[in-house]
Specification:
Layout (H helix, E strand, L loop, with lengths): L8 E4 L9 H28 L6 H18 L2 H7 L6 E3 H34 L4 H4 L2 H27 L8 E2 L6 H7 L5 H34 L4 H29 L8 H26 L1 H20 L1
Helix pairs in contact: 1-2, 1-10, 2-4, 2-10, 4-6, 4-8, 4-9, 6-8, 8-9, 9-10, 10-11
Amino acid sequence: MENRSFIEEFVFLGFSNHPDLQVLFFLVFLAIYTITVVGNALILTLIRTDPALHTPMYYFLSILSFLDIFYTSATVPVMLANFFRPSKTISYAGCISQLFFLITCAGTECVLLAVMAYDRFVAICSPLHYTSIMSKSVCMKLAVFSWLCGLTNSLVHTLLTSSLTICKSDQLSHFFCDVPLLLKLSCSDIYINEVVLHLASALIGLSPCLFTLVSYVRIISAILKISSSKGRAKAFSTCASHLIVVIIFYGTANFNYNRPSSGYSLDIDTLVSSLYCIVTPMLNPIIYSLRNKEVKASLMKMGKKYFSSSVRV
């Protein structure tokens, strides 16, 4: 390809190795996207309408559900449309916009999961002071802090990436735009970009992960000190759902970004990224619905209310 300072559009290579399976891929990812949106929207509705769920834990969960909807909506609709296009493309402006929203949601979710771990730490280790520590104003400040971290991180990356000269190729070995991929296509000096990328990984990725890990070490330590087995089971059940979500999120994220840059086929890269970007947001509402008694009770209450109103009509 002839070198040029501006790329009008990028070509996604993800899923391109299997042209005969495009319809199957479309149906599978459409089903996953539908479950993700409906499941997270249902969680949002339950938390908003049921007073029993108006607690700090569910307040943060509602933000997590919103992030998951927004996160998948930034990538999946474009991918679904591309399954029926001869050339799977995205405009340069669309790529930069997708980059901004993806980094915003991912960064915010990293910090939010740490905030949720702190909420569970206070609930388990300082139950008598929980209401005063996790007040409404504190919860709002923690939520705003999470969003500000995600937005600031995303804005910096987006501005630095958009200033690059892309000239090596217009092909992305993926199904969405990501900073490391664009850095590989640049013929500009990317030293500052790489420094900021590593710094952000430490501040927005590693730091919340370590904070969450320390919080759960102390939580588990406190739970093991409870003399009653019933009390231990009850205490652990209050944080089990969040712990599973944390393990899945950081596990898939680590596997996605901390692998050797070579030695993996396009199919493996696409599969791993799909787990991180598409499957994980679908699992979150399922995990919280299946393992959380309050959510299940609220869901049953809504179902009975809907059924009763339908019968009367």
